[in-house]
Automatic annotation (TrEMBL):
InterPro entries in the record: Methyltranfer_dom, METTL25
Region of interest (Disordered), residue spans: 1-43
Chain intervals with Polar residues compositional bias: 1-12, 28-42
Superkingdom: Eukaryota
Domain Methyltransferase: 54-212
Protein's UniProt name: Protein RRNAD1 isoform X8
Amino acid sequence: MARSARWTNPTTAGHPAAGNAQGRGGDQTPSEFLENPSQSSRLMAPFRKHVKPKKQHEIRRLGELVKKLSDLTGCTQVVDVGSGQGHLSRFMSLGLGLMVKSLEGNQRLVSRAQRLDQELLQALNKMEKRHPKVVQRGPRHSPHHVVQWVSPTALCEELLLPLETSGQGSARLLLTGLHACGDLSVALLRHFCCCSEVVALASVGCCYMKLSDPGSYPLSQWVAGLPGHELPYRLREGACHALEDYAERLQNAGPGLQTHCFRAALETVIRHVCPELRRPGVQGIPRVHELKIEEYVQQGLQRVGLDPQLPLDLAALRAQQAQENRVVAFFSLALMLAPLVETLILLDRLLYLEEQGFYAELLPIFSPELSPRNLVLVATKTPLGQAFSILENEDI
């Protein structure tokens, strides 16, 4: 997995599967967090409020890349798809001066995003009065939030509509998504390819296990022609785990590692009582290391909608718990394949865009220690040449 070096067109290297992937960089704390590990020194205080360090790093780096890409391609409007609480949209609009439309399918998240917009505007106005030389003067445009679900297979008309405030007869759109989940990242690619209004793309994907199969992988003819290109759920799910974080957990050998064994035991119980329920999502159970294995299983059963008072075979659970080291070893070996799987998925997307005649690159813009899904797929409809290198550089 190329965590720290730019990926160029893999087909020019002679073999697409090679992908021009290079090694990871050193494990270093980003300079913006050296003074305070929870506050980015590169963001003004109002933009840090309600935002965790990981997200601070992500919105700053992706936002700055989108601004540069917008300038290079002459975009008049940015569309943030799957915008959640609007942290990225707020930074791009109120921090970088871009015209932004935010699409989010969850009404509750959109309502919260709008409240945070107003809170940020008030904070910026107060700061402008106190420190007029620090805060940029002039009109401010909040993101335009829309409750909208985007289908991975059908075009979304709302996504393509220009903002009235853009003052342009016809919009030139830049689509972006920060860790757009599963099929949503694929939807961005398809809108980019099919819609003349969309001239640029900056997509960071995640949740590969939620990709529709078939339909969202493979996308490219090249990968579809590879023998054995299929990626079952287990491999796609494994590609979403963080190698850096897990390596640290292994080095510390903390009690939290037993979670894998407990979750495996829970799965055996689930499949015994409800065979048709496979790999249900179990939200994180707190303080697992303080629970007995049967207590964990009972809580897990309740979270997936099953009776937590089902009779349990305690002897069998104890025998499974005794296999903890083997479970951790198995999980570690499986995790070693994660970079290879993610590489295949992302290169498939890049090749798909290039097969359509467009220009695309994968750029590492996040620190993998903070944000393991750290590669952004950038695409344009006109060649940028060496300008691609400008996008990944840090602003001074």
